[in-house]
């Protein structure tokens, strides 16, 4: 019966999952075709690792289909009967945050053997990182990449341009970056893996993996995410990035102050309702670029800075000499008239060495201390 059934339907040849069951327990099998099967509790066939299945009940409603008729097989006969289903493959897998390769010998959906493979090459490393970025769950997604301040800032600047100017400025959402990962992430990872000796396995940020005998070590932590993202910059518009969304803005004191764009992608631009806050109702909303600067550096500044061809008003976080926020505004003119008198009254006693003029419109902006007036 085994030879007849196995020859007629080799896809129904099945291998037991795990050891023989204890008395009174069902035995569960996996077929060459991938279907889960089970033997009734107490079946003498459960002692056989391999079965040629001749009949199943697919309507049993209990998960694995119930085997109604089968005969035992040995592995050698199994491979002869289902030889057309034999295949070998190599795959990359994550294990404890490390990437490795393994060779699998399979009979259809049944894995016969698994052996270690050679260290993954640059293309395999890149494919594995892209797959990990696209995966769901913990320890997956874009969070596995080593996002530093530069990368977060560039992503936020591009997100702002995409929001207000549209194409060809790239979409910086998680979904869009994952979808286009072959364009920007894969080449950067492959290049880094190649520098590490042509093979290796990336771990979580901070981890490293061997790149093979005598080779250097590869670590995903060394990936320059900002440089990778620049592969998505449109040409020739890319030349206008610093003009449209500058990294720094000059304030009246002459200082070049860095603009914080991170709220554009993921968070509130700042806490509204600080002491002396003034401006429009939008002043504390999320998604605004922020310029944090001391009040003394802004004296005489009437026009709140605007970027992205004048479409976006920068949210100002005006700071005390100790660099603590005393006001949040996107309307400087309103602040000088309405909010500043309260700030001056509260701050001049705390910081008497700094300038707190009654007329901020005409006072010189200063980076350091100034005589109290």
TrEMBL record:
Superkingdom, taxonomy of origin: Bacteria
Q: Offer an example of a GO molecular function term for this protein.
A: hydrolase activity
Where would I find the ATP-dependent RNA helicase HrpB C-terminal domain in this sequence?
219-360
Record's compositionally biased regions (Gly residues) = 195-204
UniProt entry tagged with the keyword Ubl conjugation: no
- Give UniProt keywords alphabetically: ATP-binding, Helicase, Hydrolase, Nucleotide-binding
One Pfam family of this chain: HrpB_C
Recorded protein name is ATP-dependent helicase
What organism does this protein naturally occur in?
A: Actinomyces oris
